[in-house]
Write a structure and sequence with these properties.
alpha+beta, Membrane-bound Lytic Murein Transglycosylase D, Chain A, Glucose Permease (Domain IIA), ten-stranded antiparallel β-sheet, elongated
Length: about 300
């Protein structure tokens, strides 16, 4: 009986020790998006035409909700971070923080509405001047653009910006259409554009092959923070077009850096991909477009 009692005491101490260790190992740290409990939702009949989230659990209106649906504003979704929203909209995340008077960039609320274009009269980093074979002659009002849809099947879906539907390239009279594109890599095309499955081109190559800027532009994102893209670069060419270069082995440019058409910006790799390749996308006002309509024949 005494032995049984000792075993019981030992088992109890062991269990208590395990529970203490488990409690200490609980991960801590702030989430990138603050979700303050259950949000108050609009009646089902009004959801399609109005904001699905208007107040927090305490009935307090969410920051910026009065601007929901306006061009140039973005409603925060679960999983968003300021850095990702900046990449999605082609803006510096530091500017978004400043335009919205955000005290802590790590705490934004689901449903909060953020300004993602400069307020009138606000200076921002300008895109580089066009090269001799680019005829950008007329500026257009800034429009938010969304980051490319993730080519990986397991990647998170990018949030849609609050913008009007873009016009087709042929309908616009802006010089922004005259970019003067080139191919970003010399390898074989292994996957073409498919609006449902592949939002751009997949180009084969060897690890370390050069990845070139398809046109003059400014780096608005360079990093590996977007799941499914690996080491990713996003260039903003003007107020209409963005390009994305994914799965790189090495990134050779930094955010806010101006680049020239044909400049080597990365080395091809297989980061977050099943093989060495470049995933390349052209986005027109946030919408993926078929690169064959823009790249020269080869």
């Amino acid at each position: 009986m005494q032995g049984f009692g000792n075993r019981s005491w030992f088992a109890g101490v062991t269990l208590a020790f395990v529970l203490v260790i488990a409690g200490c190992s609980t991960p801590r740290g702030p989430a990138p998006v603050e979700d303050r409990g259950t949000m108050t939702r609009a009646p089902a009949a009004t959801v399609p035409g109005g904001p699905p989230i208007t107040t927090d659990a305490n009935g307090k209106p969410l920051p910026g909700i009065e601007n929901y649906g306006k061009p140039g504003y973005y409603a925060v979704r679960p999983g968003d971070t300021i850095r990702r929203i900046g990449a999605d909209t082609g803006q510096r995340w530091q500017d978004i923080v400043r335009w919205n008077n955000i005290e802590n960039p790590d705490l934004i609320e689901v449903g909060q509405v953020l300004r993602v274009i400069p307020p009138t009269g606000t200076a921002v980093a300008a895109a580089p001047a066009p090269s001799s074979d680019s005829a950008v002659t007329k500026a257009v009002p800034p429009q938010p653009a969304v980051v490319p849809s993730t080519p990986s099947s397991g990647a998170a879906k990018s949030p849609a910006p609050v913008t009007a539907s873009p016009a087709s390239p042929s309908s616009g009279g802006s010089g922004d259409e005259d970019v003067g594109w080139i191919w970003p890599a010399s390898g074989t095309l292994i996957a073409g554009f498919d609006e449902a499955k592949n939002k751009g081109y997949d180009i084969a190559g060897k690890a370390g092959d050069p990845v070139l800027a398809a046109a003059d532009g400014r780096v608005v994102y360079a990093g590996a923070g977007l799941r499914g893209y690996g080491n990713l670069i996003i260039l903003k060419h003007n107020n209409t077009y963005l390009t994305a270069y994914a799965h790189n082995q090495t990134l050779l440019v930094k955010e806010d850096q101006s680049v020239q058409k044909g400049q080597k910006i990365a080395e091809m790799g297989n980061s977050d991909a099943d093989r060495v390749k470049l995933h390349f996308e052209i986005r027109r006002q946030g919408k993926p477009v078929d690169p064959s309509r823009y790249l020269p024949s080869r």
